[in-house]
Amino acid sequence: MTSPGVPDEIHVAGRWRPGRGNPLECVDPATGEVIAKITAAAPEDVDEAVRAGAAAAADPAWRDLLPHERARLLTRVGDLIEQHAGELALLQTRNTGKALAETRALVGSAAGTFRFYAAALETTETPLTPQRGPYLTMSVPEPIGVVGAITPWNSPIASDAQKVAPALAAGNAVLLKPAEATPLVSLALARLVVEAGVPPALFSVLPGKGSVIGDAIVRHPAVGKVSFTGGTDTGRAIGRLAAAKFMPLTSELGGKSPTIVFDDADLDQAVAGILFGIFSSSGQSCIAGSRIFVPERIYAEFVERLVAGARRLRVGPGTDPASQVGPLATFAHRDRVAALVDRAREEGANVLCGGRIPDDPELARGAYYLPTLLDGLPNDARTCQEEIFGPVGVVLPFRDEEELIARANDTIFGLACGIWTRDYRRAWRVARRIDAGTVWINTYKQFSIATPFSGMKASGVGTDKGRDAILRYTRQKSLYWGLDEAPLPWAT
């Protein structure tokens, strides 16, 4: 069995080799140490991967592989991920700064994702459609051919699996473009996919700048679909290119998700859930609960509890089992978050806790930022409207349910929401009125690969996950089987 190791080459059309692009350093954000040096992909590598992938997808050895045989390969990928879980989790922690407990969970999620789509593939049926004449009708899914999967730096391998597994299950070749700063675990995944027996040219991993490699993938005339997770501005640009090609696109974009506490909630449960919702992953999550709505009646008490909880969170390297909040993924991003908090101060925000780089000398080499809570801002302040993508939450008081719903929905985003209440009728009523693709009630950031995930408004188009994700990587073809032995009447 091959160990994934620390990759030093990229995987292009079944071959491990240096890319044709610029040198790329992968840095441990907890220490600033360079942990790997690779050469990024170039547009020429994209073209090579597309051409080889298209040929491999059309090869009868893959094209005609029966669903249960393809499912066996996906199950094998899941097994290999699980067997190498410790190495993969540590590699992801060193490249992203995430806590080991979180990266272990993400690796486990990736293994489960491949197994889920293996099971879904084995049990997917093609129904006959209702007969409406002297013919039999059916609609069958066929592979698109070559698809592009563009994933973010905050949750590699889990995000990778959610795109790669259903795309392979559908019979496609896949070009995976991981984030420039965090490609290592995606490259390690390629070794396991090939070891599982998937034809090597079907899966390429092409690290590099999104403006270069992502752009080349989206523009390539032989790429038939793109699934993108990332920022809203980039998603809009990809959407324009996809529209020009009449190419289907799935996009999961930004968020500014409301977390709502009602005065009948279990406040201890709500505090713990809200802290997890905004500060796990150091806030680097599109579904982070970054706008915290609290009733005026309990505002002072609840904010006091919330601030006390945030101050107790342990900040440190992801390799330390005691750490709850690790460094941000890059130093540049840490500095961006710090600048946005400074702007919040200029808007009139009160910094309730955090709001700075930690002064602990043991953390001085890392890209750390303290868990930060703000209040004193109106909902239309830029800080309350723009995604910060860091450990920064804004607390907002509200008077009644109607005002709450109006303010919670007063955003361009519609990705997620959290509701904390003991009143199940209120939970149902509010959940249905909030513009969000996912609503958690008395919990937060829990996921099932079996449950579809989507965004509203500027948070994306299309749906990831769920049993039907395989069909989203296919084209439908309708077949009509004539049953009448007589000629068509107009010709006689």
The largest sheet, given as strand count, sense and whether it forms a barrel, is: 7 strands, mixed
Oligomer: single chain
The span between the termini is: 68 Å
Task: Report mean pLDDT, rounded to a whole number.
Answer: 96
Taking pLDDT < 50 over at least 5 consecutive residues as the criterion, the unreliable ranges are none
Structural class label:
alpha/beta
Query: Beta-sheet strand percentage?
Result: 15-25%
Portion of residues within helices: 25-40%
Indicate the radius of gyration in whole angstroms: 24 Å
How many beta strands in the DSSP annotation?
Answer: 24
**Strands ordered across the widest β-sheet:** 14-15-16-13-12-18-19
**Morphology:** globular
Q: Compute the number of helices.
A: 15
